[in-house]
Structures are given as structure tokens and as C-alpha cells.
Amino acid sequence: MKKQILLFSIALLPLAALSNEPSAFGSNTNDVDSSSATTSYSNTVSVSDKKYFQNNQKTISSTSNDNLSSTKTDQGSISSEQYEGMRSVVDSYASKIAKQDDKMRQLEEENKKLREYVEENRKIQADNQEKIKTVVGELGTLIDSINKNYVPKDKFDQLANEVRGGKSASKTVTPAIDSTKKDTVKETPPATKVISAKELSTKDSATLTKEADDLLDKKSYSEAQALYTELLHRNYKPAKTNFSLGEAAYNQKAYSTAIEHYKASITASDKAAYTPALLYHTGVSFEKLGKAKEAQGFYKALKDGYPDSPEAKKVK
């Protein structure tokens, strides 16, 4: 109702303004009445509606302020939530990046260790190659010396045949040797103790070797030869077995038999701990048989190949 009165009052304002204008025809008959009406209406509006206008203005202002404050509060709340969300995302990415950095550092450390390991292995391999070259060179020199000084195989066979009484032997051995060293050259075939095959078959090769070596050390040459012969039939360590048979024959002054076994031994293996003894006893055997020149070949090989051995020191 008040709003209708307000609108009606606003509509009458122009009429009131027109009524206050002087008449074009000079007539002021209604001036007093109009002025009175206007004054009365103005008083009516100012009293009843001004308070309404003021109250509405305060209400509108208060509502506007409340709405503005609420809007600011909502905007502040939204901005805070967005900031917290963005900070959470940034923190998550920062954590992932930190983990990646740690993995990268670990990989770099592992790669560094791997490079150091490879470099160390390379240096070790290089050192080993140099050592191998040195050893191969020394071995080559030793082999050249042995090949140069050893009696060739065909010559060895010829000498063995001569020792066994071939035609060449009768031509080579001088009468002086035959007359002055008959006792030395004369050989007594080694006697062999008969051991039953059944007894030998019950023993393994390692046991037979130990027993034969013990008999050889005790100078029971015949018994030792029986066991070594059985081992040779079994083809058990032919190089060592032939050397032991040669030693048994050598100690019984059966030099031709000793040379045959020495030859078989060194043909099977020319690099053994007993090689210096084999070379020395082969030389002595040839020397006992009047083959001084051939004996010197073995002595020279012994001194060149094994200069620090006890056998080499025996050679003059």
C-alpha cells in the first residue's frame, strides 16, 4: 500500500510543478488553493513516507553489505581451497622429483663403481697379458734350448739299437773301452720276482705304485720291477712308470735297459720333476757304454735347462 502511495505521489509531482507556474493569462485565482494542496501533500509525504524510504534504504544497504560480505567470504573460502589443492599437487610433484633425483644419484654412483671395476679388471688383464708374454718367451727359449741340445729321437733310437748289440754298436765301441771297462759295460739282466697275476689283480694301480716306490727306495729292484711292469701293462702313468723302471735298471747297471725306459719316459712327458735325474742318468748310461759324445749332449741339456738342479751340479 505504501508503495502504491509512493508511486502515486511521484506521478503527481509534475502536476504540482505545473500548478505553481504563473498563468499565461495573468490569472492567479487558484494560487492559494494549489499552494495549500501542495503544501498539504508535501507534508503528508514527508511524514509518512520519508521514514519508509529511510528504513528501506538502510535495509537495502544492510542487505547489500551482507551480500557483499557473504560473497567475499565465499570467494575467500574458494580461493583458500584452491590454494590448498594446488599446494598439495605441487608438493606431490616435488616429492616425485626428489625420489627421481635420489634414483639418479644412485645410478650415477653404481655407474661410477662399474667403471672403476671395469678399469681395474682391464689393468689386471693387461698385467696378466704382460706376464703371460714373459712366461711364453721364457718357455720358448727353454724349448729352443732343449730342442737344440736334446739327442733327436731317431738318434736316440739308433743309440738304443747300438746298445742292444746292433751292427753300428760293434763299429762304434773302441777296443780300449772293451779291454779297460769290461766290468763297467757288462750288464746283468735284472731278475724279476715272480708275483702271481691273481695277487696283482687284487690291487688297484695307486696301491701298486706306492708299494713299487717303497721297494725301489729299499733297493729291492727285482720286486719293484715286477710291480712297475704290471702298471705299465695297465698303461698307468706311463711316463713315471718307465722312469722308475729305468731307475731300477740303472741301479742294477743294466744301462741299455735303463736307456730304453728313459727314452719311453721322456717321449711321454719331457716336463716332470724327475726330468733332471732322467737326463743325468741317461748321460751316465751312455757314458758307461762308451758313448761319451752322446752323453755330453744330455749333460749340456741338463745344465742349460736345469742349471740349479743337484744333477746339473754333478756334471763337470
Automatic annotation (TrEMBL):
Q: Among its keywords, does the record have Signal?
A: yes
Q: Where is the composition biased (Polar residues)?
A: 59-82
> What's this protein's name?
TPR repeat containing periplasmic protein
- Coiled-coil blocks: 90-127
Q: Which Pfam families match?
A: TPR_16 (PF13432)
Lineage top rank: taxon: Bacteria
Query: Which keywords are on file for this protein?
Result: Coiled coil, Signal
What lineage is this protein's organism placed in? Answer: Bacteria, Pseudomonadati, Campylobacterota, Epsilonproteobacteria, Campylobacterales
Region: Disordered, residue numbers: 59-83
Give the signal peptide as a residue range, or say none if absent. 1-19
